[in-house]
Amino acid sequence: MPLRVNNVTRGRTLALRAARAESFWPRLVGLMGRAGLEPGEGLHILPCNGIHSFFMRFPFDALFLDRDLKVVHCLEAMPPWRASSIYRDAHSVVELPAGTVAATGTRPGDLLAFDAG
After folding, report:
1. Residue 51 needs a FRET pair 20 to 30 A away by CA distance; which of 6, 21, 45, 65 works?
2. Residue 79: phi, psi to the nearest 5?
3. Which domains does the chain have, with CATH numbers?
């Protein structure tokens, strides 16, 4: 079921159609094999406190969230073939099209919410 991802703090929608990856295989594969993310798409990976972009063909934004869905770190336009740092306070990650973080003004400390799309 697609999820809507909202930045409650800023009153902005980050994704209209986000998938959730909670089991081993979907978390491992993530966005690999895709040509890109369309505006409004996203992927919520949990549990997760670090990501990679190996075997990917496009940059993307990533928001690292704590258990309360508060943003602990923003990673903008992560290029292919990189690995992020591990963020000990993070419990999950939302991957979004590159430019989403800047366009919505999302920053650490913002509170997110997920609703059934």
Report:
1. 6
2. -80, 165
3. 3-83+91-104 (2.60.120.1140)
